[in-house]
């Protein structure tokens, strides 16, 4: 008597779990002997035990796991797993030291991990990174689920430096004349340090910069280009009040300066 052979059916698709564990590493759990896997278009690798499988050199792409067929079964349909990558953590708020030997901070969360030296591995963040010394901090989003750890973003904590103080040097000049008589036009040159002028047109009246006696005016002599550090003011006019040995003071409004 001839008996027709039993048709083979596909084995059951394996219910394995993939978990990303690092920048290019992950693991397969819930595995059984008799499975095989491949990464992308790579070669198939047999799984010969029930221990979790450590995967290395991973990148974004596909991972396939199959239950191998036997005497009565065919290879199963592949369980297809998509491997993704976390988003690079850009734009985190940084607080720089506010005093000599002060510390800084970076607004990380428990989703992040950090290091000062990538070759020494990463440390998980428990919240905002605080009490940071000056240096370059490498921060990335931790691996989770099917997502590999992100590319790292660099954040710099800078050593505190005393702010520069803007100063102005004014050429010594003497303005002399008589009440009711026009004075000789007199130029005053102003030179800035650690500051610069905004653009100022020639002829701009700047009398309010200087405590001039009534009747005198001050104007910008030559056009001042943006970011220039010098300006010349011409004093002219006819004093209408008597004055003697008046000490002139120059106060440049913030709107005329780059620093604002």
Task: Describe the structure in your own words.
About 0% of the residues lie in helices and about 35% in strands. By secondary structure, it is an all-beta fold. The strands form six sheets. A five-stranded mixed beta sheet has the order 5-4-7-9-16, with no helix packed on it. A four-stranded antiparallel beta sheet has the order 13-12-15-17, with no helix packed on it. A hairpin with an 8-residue loop joins strand 10 (about 95) and strand 11. The chain is rod-shaped, with a radius of gyration of 38 Å. The termini are far apart.
Task: Itemize the secondary structure elements and their pairings.
Blueprint: E1 9-10, E2 17-20, E3 26-29, E4 35-39, E5 45-47, E6 53-55, E7 61-67, E8 73-74, E9 79-85, E10 94-95, E11 104-106, E12 112-115, E13 123-124, E14 129-132, E15 135-141, E16 147-148, E17 153-157, E18 167-170, E19 186-193, E20 216-220, E21 230-237
Parallel strand pairs: 1-8, 9-16
Antiparallel strand pairs: 2-3, 3-6, 4-5, 4-7, 7-9, 10-11, 11-14, 12-13, 12-15, 15-17, 18-19, 19-21, 20-21
């Amino acid at each position: 008597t001839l008996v027709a052979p039993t048709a083979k059916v596909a084995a059951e698709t394996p219910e394995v779990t993939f978990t990303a564990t690092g920048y290019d590493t992950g693991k397969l759990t819930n595995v059984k002997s008799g499975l095989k896997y491949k990464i992308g278009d790579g070669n198939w690798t047999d799984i010969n035990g029930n221990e979790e499988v450590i995967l290395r050199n991973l990148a974004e792409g596909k991972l396939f796991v199959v239950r191998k067929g036997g005497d009565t079964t065919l290879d199963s349909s592949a369980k297809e797993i998509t491997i993704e990558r976390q988003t690079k953590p850009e734009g985190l708020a940084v607080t720089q030291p506010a005093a000599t030997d002060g510390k800084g901070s970076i607004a990380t969360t428990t989703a992040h991990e950090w290091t000062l030296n990538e070759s020494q591995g990463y440390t998980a963040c428990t919240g905002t990174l605080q009490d940071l010394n000056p240096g370059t901090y490498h921060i990335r989003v931790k691996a989770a689920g099917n997502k590999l750890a992100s590319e790292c973003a660099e954040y710099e904590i800078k050593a505190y430096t005393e702010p520069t103080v803007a100063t102005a040097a004014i050429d010594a000049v003497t303005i002399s004349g008589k009440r009711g008589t026009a004075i000789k036009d007199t130029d005053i040159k102003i030179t800035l340090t650690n500051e610069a002028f905004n653009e100022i047109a020639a002829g701009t009246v700047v009398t309010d910069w200087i405590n001039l006696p009534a009747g005198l005016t001050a104007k910008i002599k030559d056009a001042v280009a943006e970011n220039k550090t010098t300006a010349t003011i011409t004093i002219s006019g006819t004093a209408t009040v008597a004055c003697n040995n008046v000490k002139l003071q120059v106060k440049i409004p913030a709107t005329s300066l780059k620093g604002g």
